[in-house]
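Working notes for the structural subgroup meeting. M.R. asked for a predicted model of this chain before we commit to crystallization trials. I am recording the input and output together here so anyone reviewing the notebook later can reproduce the run.

Input as submitted:
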Amino acid sequence: MCFLYLLAMKKNIQILILLISTTGISQEKFSREISFITDNDLFISSYQDRYYSSGFFLAYKYLSKRKSNSLEKRIFKWELGHKMFTPYKSTINNVIDHDRPFAGYFYGSFGIDRVYKKNQLLNTSLQIGVIGPNSFAREIQQFIHDVYDFRKAIGWKYQIKNALALNFSFNYLKTILKTKKNHVDVTWVNHLNFGSIFTNTASGVYTRIGIKPLQKLTNTIAFNTNLNNDQNNYFREVESFIYIKPMISYVFFDATLQGSFLNKKSPVTKEIVPLVFNTEIGLRFTINRLNFGYAFIYNTNKSKELRYSNGHKYGRVTFNYLLH
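Returned structure, recorded in token form:
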């Protein structure tokens, strides 16, 4: 059903996206990029505001000038990120009704994307930050509610307590299938996170359906590998495609639910559900130096005794701007 939905989406939007994306710059090289990603359940519903409530991620990426016999590219990434979590309603005052803890997570990270010549990508990153009141999640949510004229969020006094955040991340991707005309391809995606906030592993596939022939894993906005310089033979290319990304993950630890093992004084904690299914359906396209994306994301329940037992869904908006 998801595949048929993607084909129908492609037919409906291909003319519009093709018209605007063909204005993009080609045969140019850009070695740096600024990106902004925001997650919010308000992107799919004007009344839903629960569980993973919002996320903001600002990043700067640049291409290494070092050459390597095995690598097409080596890309460095600096990022600031913030995630916010609430119970089924942020206006709940009675702690007994908190079906998951209030929690905020703020971090800075440094990562390296190693883009191999045989359509493989290995990403490693280190996150350092804080979970708890020092993440300023309470203040950020109040600002958002003021902007949208929502009721004041209460109950943050019961949030997960302050603790140091230190997390490592490893991601491995490999293109495993593509059609003869290269309008469809499938990439195997694997994630591993471990540390004081999240410890989990996940695996799945990223399937793209292109309005025009797809770019390789080594030079595409799909995997943020579209940075180039004079040391490689790639250029900035016009892209537009829809995609689906189903994943299955196994969760060993989640401090936003269980509280940090470095500070066990959190008044509300919950038991995790280890096995989680996640799927992402989205659209990506280029206009000149800009890359845009929108995605609908759904995951099954991540903790037990949630009031809404049919999973959680939210939207993601992506903006990228290329620099020479």
